[in-house]
Amino acid sequence: MNRGKMWNLMRTMKFSILSFTMMLLATNTVKAQETLGQNPFGLVYAGAITANVDGKVNIHPVTYQLNGITIAANVYTPANYDPTKTYPAITVAHPNGGVKEQTAGLYAQKLAEAGYITITADASYQGASGGEPRHTDKPQFRTEDIHGMADFILQYPGVDAARLGTLGICGGGGYTLKAVQSDKRFKAVATLSMFNTGIVRKNGFLNSQVSTIQERLKQASDARAQETSGGEIVYSGVDGITDEAMAKVSTHFYREGYEYYFRTHAHPNSTFLYTTSSLMDLMSWDATDNIDLIDQPLLMIAGSNAQTLYLTLDAFPKATNAKDKTLFLIEGATHIQTYWKPEYVNQAVSKLKVFFQDNLLKKHKDEL
């Protein structure tokens, strides 16, 4: 075969693969929209609750105030929930760009099925929660959101304050590591596919933007100056992506992320936008600063094939004072696949069940 024919064949194969991929994405988009339209709670994950039924896990949309902002959250109660009895509880912090109706809700529901009262809330300034400017993404607010979930759920009927755990997913994992350093109401700490947002915003993903740190800080500072002077708010990130643009994304993590958030598990409140001025706070923040303050039991879970694994591997050894510290790698899983793929979700949930049982149930009984 001559070079010209080979090139045409390769181009045809590439076009066919791309066409199939785009067709698959389009089909998944329709499915996600149908799921959202059918679910009365707006949940977009597989196996989501569609109605509250006696004797089963139920979901309770709630709102509460946190520093003058109305927070929108979902509380999941276990089967046969009786408010006169006592239950362990777990807060679940959602990923960057995510909302409570996606993977955070999936894990909250799975843990409620294991007997816990769980809560997952939209971050301040994001999702269905209040706060202006929209999509502000400052680490001090995200950390405070986790404290706020604890404030609320510890007042919920039946919750045992001595048995409170926390799970953080992706960016929520990094913020969870920070929150529990000082918040000792949390008796056990777990992260899934932890994403240290500050380090990535400063150095770039996989340390790809180290040479432009000062330039980007200047852009963030200029954006804040414009914002505070009454000018237009400047945003970074994306709020949707075309099929053509998605096909050109070279980083596997971001391509899978776009597919998850804008196709297969799309939700209207979910976006990758954040105010550019937020980078002033994000780029000077690191989830592992003072991580030695964590003295609670710690479980960190990540996919062995996740491009974000380096962030978990960096944080784990720094938590020198964590009790019963465990690193669990899900063989073959990528970062985004831990959000939804049943075989990987089931492994993560099984590990979480054992971890929380050992540290919220067994140890509590031993102390009585």
Quaternary state of this entry equals single chain
Number of strands: 10
Silhouette: globular
**CATH third-level topology:** Rossmann fold
Following the backbone from N to C, one meets helices and strands in this order, namely HEEEHEHEHEHHEHHEHEHEHH
- Please list the strands of the largest sheet in the order they lie side by side: 1-2-4-3-5-6-9-10
The unreliable regions are: 1-36
- Overall domain count: 1
- What portion of residues is helical? 40-55%
The main sheet comes to: 8 strands, mixed
Keywords:
single chain; 368 residues; alpha/beta; Rossmann fold; 8-stranded mixed sheet; two-stranded antiparallel ribbon; 12 helices; 18% strand; disordered N terminus
Task: Give a verbal description of the structure.
The protein is of the alpha/beta class and 368 residues long. It has a single domain, classed as Alpha/Beta hydrolase fold, catalytic domain (Rossmann fold), CATH 3.40.50.1820. The protein contains 12 helices and 10 strands. The strands form 2 sheets. It has an 8-stranded mixed β-sheet, with helices on both faces. Strands 7-8 form a two-stranded antiparallel sheet. α1 packs across α8 and α3 packs across α4. The longest helix is centred in the N-terminal third of the chain and has 36 residues.
Summarize the structure.
Strand 5, helix 4 (171-182) and strand 6 (188-192) form a beta-alpha-beta unit. This protein has 368 residues and is α/β, with parallel strands linked by helices. The longest helix has 36 residues, at 3-38.
Topology:
Layout: H1 3-38, E1 58-66, E2 69-77, E3 87-93, H2 103-113, E4 117-121, H3 139-153, E5 159-169, H4 171-182, E6 188-192, H5 197-203, H6 213-228, E7 235-236, H7 243-247, H8 252-264, E8 274-275, H9 279-282, E9 297-303, H10 309-315, E10 323-330, H11 337-340, H12 342-367
Parallel strand pairs: 3-4, 3-5, 5-6, 6-9, 9-10
Antiparallel strand pairs: 1-2, 2-4, 7-8
